[in-house]
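Let us practice reading a record.
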Amino acid sequence: MEKSVSKPYEEWTLTLPPMSQPSTLYALKPIGIGTPVVESLTSYIARLAEAHCVFPGVLMRKIIAPFAESHPMGTRGSVAMDLRDGKATAAFNSAHHRARNAVNTVESLTQQHGLHVLTMLPWTEVFPLFGLMRTDRAWCPYCLEEWQTSGRIIYEPLLWAVQAVKICAQHGCRLETHCPKCTRTSRWLTWRSRPGYCAHCYQWLGRDLMRPEETEPETIWICWCAEQVGTLLALAPTLTNTPGRTRIHEGLTAVLDQISQGRKMTFARFVGLSDKMVGDWFYLQQLPSVENLLRVCFAVNLSLQDFLLEKQITCTLRPDGTQDLWGRSSRQSGRGFWKTAQVREMLEAIAMSEETPPRSLKAVARQLGGDPHSLKIYHPVPSQAISDRYAAYMSAKKLATEQQFCTEVQEAVSQLIEQNIPPTGRNVALVLSKPGILRSSVVREARRAAIRERQNMRNQSKEFPEKAKSVV
């Protein structure tokens, strides 16, 4: 009989494959990354709360804020995550430090990376904070209605949060800011926020009616602004090197030379802005607001993308002019902005923040695109608080640095004396890591005190040699 040979069984690997650490919250994917209608961070947080069947306020208070408190950001991150009345939530979508804290926290909880493109953080260096984001929600009712009808996810694009965008480029209608039922405005993120619905009466904000034709002469201008900002938002994920602050000055100088041969007053007249505002851009290195930068680009037939990203700028003056698009009131908008409650709220938030190191009033003014003098005049209380906090920090830092230098000098003196080398200023300087610290009177006094202390110890050892030996 033939012996049957049993077939060998296949070998199984019983070890578990490596698994990544699960995320604390759902790894919800943002909508529209790489497109002009990329989702805003406040909308993402609201949808994240809806996915967990809780209100955004509950999610922020119970999960996000405690995580931010235990995160390396510390208590500053926890304060930044506090919704309160929702007034400061516009900063989540901006280039503010609150946006940075919110992005870091939400990325850690969801393990979704690249959420900074849901904010204006990629353009921190080129766009000042003032006039950048809307404080209240804005929306296109026709976009909302189309998304609901087609079964798409309802969300709020970052484009709607930019203050320079006043129109929906797709439908050509003005963005709305007041609920059609209760006529109230809403903040970007509140306790019960839900994209597409009023935060007060929970009325659906979409509408599918006959849209009125826009016949205003500035329609072309505001549509152009929406398209330009949308193009930048779509480019954010692909940027390897974001433009810096110097890019604005270089671009304005190139446009100035080509349009008015370096004459600033002529340039201001061509673009329809005030002489003082244009002068501040060049002489004080102030950053123009997004809307004013768009005005310059529109007047010289230059896209905002080319202005910020192209190495060589080529532009020509628009033949039909731009004086009819914005009048005298818009020229003074930069000055009037400093008196608004929006600036005061920004300054109060900065004064109350616990960021380390704190920013000086000059740094705050530069970030806002203005000057410290205007802040002191219109908002003296928060401006003084910012200055006092910065001065206290610098004083403490100077004291700690001097103490460190004094300790280093004392150790250098001890080292030289042990080597029987005279602890003169020159010899001590050769031992120090930074010889220049001896220019400080405090450090020089520390050297002399260390020498006196060593001399006293030597004298005591001579007077009481037996006691010194016993001690040794």
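A brief commentary: Residues 400-471 form one domain.
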